[in-house]
Amino acid sequence: MTEEKMRFEAEVSRLLDIVVHSLYSNKDIFLRELISNASDACDKLRYEAIAKPELLAGDAEFKVRLLTDNVRNVLTIADNGIGMNKADLIENLGTIANSGTAKFVEALTKSDKGKDVDLIGQFGVGFYSAFMVANKVEVITKKAGEDQAWKWSSDGKGEYTIGEAEMEGRGTQITLHLSDDFKEFTEEQRLRHIVKTYSDHIGIPVVLMKADGNDETLNEASALWTRSKSEITDEQYNEFYKHNSHAFDDPWKTIHYRAEGAIEYTGLLYLPTMRPFDLYDPARKGHLKLYVRKVFITEGADELLPPWLRFVSGVVDSQDLPLNISREMLQHNPVLTKIKNGLTKKVLSELETASKKDSKGFDTFWEAFGSVVKEGLYEDYTNRDRILKLARFRSTHSDDWTSLADYIERMKDGQKAIYYISGEDIDALKRSPQLEGFAAKGIEVLLLTDPVDEFWLPSVGQFEEKDFKSVTRGGADLNDIKSDDKDDTKDDKKDDAASDASLDALIASIKIALGTNIKDVRESDRLTSSACCLIADETGMDLRMERLMKQHNRVDEISPRILEINPKHSLIKKLSDVAIKDAKAPILNDAALLLLDQARILEGEALPDPVSFARRLDLVMEKGLGS
């Protein structure tokens, strides 16, 4: 037999290096991963055999077999599932197809040793955990419906070989040549314990093969979701979650129920604790599996849940769908639409209950998945109101999460809108000059840092008849809102400000100096300590939204903004005095351009002409030192 020697893909080699150096805290995990893969292979063949029953070829009883050899220190995990051909071996065992995995491995390499390694299973690469305990791994496999078997072999050190092989029947046999330190994994009692602990939920028998012929089934071998909830322990629920989702965290919530009536189905859904590493990867496949009468149909079907619930994993088993349903038929099946609506309502109900009874747990969940749930605010009109009530936000009120209902309860007399500011960094938002007037009056402002916020806000518009209004737009109407400070009145606002005449003169000079670089210059009622800030027109696009559109080439350039100046600021007062005496004073032109650049810097924007900015700044500083 001729063998072909090949090298692992770079990411696989790096991943193997991490695994081999014993970063897994629990070595038992390798057996759980290999049994899980074997179960998946059987599920895939069961589905393929619906249309092609000849693939079963007289071997319709699926099982996973464990064979041990204490003398040679060998453990074999064999299944009679769908098997692999040469191309499958290269794709599945020589490369990592998931596009997010390279980034994951990069992050893992830089992380604290062992801190994130348990995330590896999320990427479907649990097979490589075999190299934790084995110094050599051999795979012999034959794909159902094909005649040629193949052998894959590697010591996990950068290369593997593939060649033709002989094998009776279909399926996959993985033989681990165990390292001397791991002889325990050939002991029957050890294997019995691991399977019972981690793989009891597997829907097909896991059989320990014995020399005397008294083979022993080690697991319950019945689909977990078909059992009564009273018969299932929390540990069994958790292990099924890890098997189904390729996850290593425990689920935050488990939803197990049976829907009866016009349509019947069983749902076993999990809300995770930890955000999947590839949650925002467009190529990511979901982990919600569809079964029809316990026969696996597909995984990650978009027809089962809306995209904004893509972090939900588990199983849905329908009694009404036909066994031979295709992916094309799934997209337009009315039964599946009803199941999708039922599942969505069930998850929302669970979240609503948790938000009231477990506020800390819900806040932790929202920290991880809130940005995804908010996608439903513009994608899912039917459930928009329920999602909006669930939504949590950071605000200037405190460091804790707040709901919109709580925000409205704290609104000031005369306040008619829900104010917000959006940006990339919450600490930078808190320092934004646009917030100064709101802070002075004790007006709460939502601090939005998720890009999705720019998309749902325009489509939602308001909550409980209160409009959402950006503090970076005109028309703040702060003078109509009563302050917590009893001494705050409209009459004293100009006591320490530039006079109307001098301020008008300065505004006119700035407009001339800046020309088309700005849309307007106006007096500000939102600034208290900063000299100036930029805002968008009341009917214009929010500042951050326009920046995002520019980054994605959706607009050619940023539109001119409104420059607001603070009449109480010492710099503005001094410039006003200059302007009333000589509206054409040279210092006014440089000052106007410096004010605009200063406002741009505060917005986190790049200056269009840094050299000119530096020159003007040098001149102003020189004059200041000279005086």
The CA-CA distance between the termini, in Å, is 92 Å
The whole-angstrom Rg is: 32 Å
The total count of strands amounts to: 23
CATH class of the largest domain: Alpha Beta
CATH topology description of the largest domain: Heat Shock Protein 90
CATH superfamily of the largest domain: Histidine kinase-like ATPase, C-terminal domain
Amount of helix: 25-40%
Total number of helices: 20
| Rounded average pLDDT | 86
**Count of discrete domains:** 4
Which percent band covers the strand fraction? 15-25%
Main sheet record? 9 strands, mixed
Give the helix/strand class: alpha+beta
Assign the CATH architecture of the largest domain. 2-Layer Sandwich
Overall geometry: elongated
Question: Reading side by side through the largest sheet, how are the strands ordered?
Answer: 1-6-5-4-7-3-2-8-9
Q: Point out poorly predicted stretches.
A: 97-101, 112-124
Region (C): 548-627
Binding site for ATP: 33, 37, 79, 84, 92, 99-100, 122-127, 172, 327
Region (A): 1-327
Pfam families: HATPase_c_3 (PF13589), HSP90 (PF00183)
